[in-house]
Specification:
9 helices, Rossmann fold, 2 domains, globular, alpha/beta, seven-stranded mixed β-sheet, Quinone Oxidoreductase, Chain A, domain 1
């Protein structure tokens, strides 16, 4: 009698398109290679990179089929050769290079950090990309601190609402740009001033900014340069053609930088205490079963959701 091959469920797509292209399939359970862990996924976020990858606007994984999902939280079931930083059974969270919308996934151990104490898996899964992006932008690149004036565009979104809190923790004066209905939410997170980014050009509403963070990109991003004071910096998170370059900004006495989004368990470990003691609170918009991935994507793309939508493979 042969033992049945272990199987996993995952969300895949066989063509580019809208949320309706996503479907559930069963595949053999992956085995961790050298330096990797096998993670039993307890929660996986629908992140900002998933929509363009799914639609083909930014084909991060080449041609379908592939599985989306960069931000995950779960339990280590198995370790590959050479892994020493974790043990089987450890609860971890991290940003990986895709494949997280599944019941199990393999990824390098270095992509993960210990899940912050007291944080459930849904909120841990919602954190990695937002925390990594905000930390690199505001602390590593812009070096904001007391006295800095920080503008966060799309401030109620997944990355934006974390950036507002991190800037506030660092002592900066934080201006949040969001719809008026989100202002109370952002004030509770530590924003000092709020503007309605649907009411007109932000450059007409906000001035003398040291660091402007734009998590969403698009044709409105270049106008954020006009909110900056001399030597201020515009930090963009979307590596698309914005019609901007560091040289263009420098010619105006300003700075411009693209924020990297690579995984880093070490950086997440540095930020974990802020999540554990709730100096940074990650807002989960909704949690949905893995089989409802299409609905989760549609909800995340409505453009009105605060925080992050999360899939739960093991309800």
């Amino acid at each position: 009698m042969t033992t049945a091959e272990p199987r996993v469920q995952l969300i895949t797509q066989h063509r580019f398109g809208g949320p309706d292209v996503l479907e559930v399939e069963e595949h053999p359970r992956p085995e961790p290679g050298p330096g990797q862990v096998l993670l039993r996924v307890h929660a996986a976020a629908v992140g900002p990179a998933d929509r363009p990858a799914r639609s083909g606007a930014a084909p991060l994984f080449g041609e379908p089929p592939f599985t989306l999902g960069h931000d995950v939280s779960g339990e280590i079931e198995e370790m590959g050769p050479g892994v020493t930083r974790f043990r089987t059974g450890d609860e971890v969270f991290g940003r990986i290079d895709g494949g997280g919308h599944a019941t199990h996934v393999t990824a390098p151990a270095g992509h993960f950090a210990a899940k912050p104490a007291g944080l459930d898996h849904a909120h841990a899964a919602a954190a990695p990309t937002a925390v990594l992006t905000a930390w690199r932008a505001l602390i590593d690149i812009a070096r904001v601190g007391p006295g800095s004036r920080v503008l966060v565009r799309a401030a109620a979104g997944g990355t934006g609402h974390v950036a507002v809190q991190l800037a506030a923790v660092e002592g900066a004066h934080v201006v949040g740009a969001a719809r008026a209905e989100d202002h109370a939410f952002l004030r509770d997170l530590g924003a000092d001033a709020l503007v309605d980014d649907t009411a007109g050009d932000l450059a007409e509403l906000v001035h003398d900014i040291d660091a402007a963070l734009d998590p969403v990109g698009g044709d409105r991003a270049p106008s954020l340069l006009d909110t900056l004071r001399p030597d201020g910096i515009l930090l963009c998170c979307v590596p698309s053609d914005l019609g901007l370059s560091p040289e263009d900004a420098e010619a105006r006495g300003l700075r411009f930088a693209l924020v990297p989004d690579t995984p880093s368990g070490d950086l997440l470990a540095r930020a974990a205490p802020l999540l554990a003691d709730r100096r940074i609170r990650v807002h989960v918009t909704a949690t949905l079963p893995l089989a409802d991935a299409a609905r989760a994507h549609a909800l995340a793309e409505e453009g009105r959701a605060r925080g992050v939508v999360v899939l739960v493979p093991h309800p």
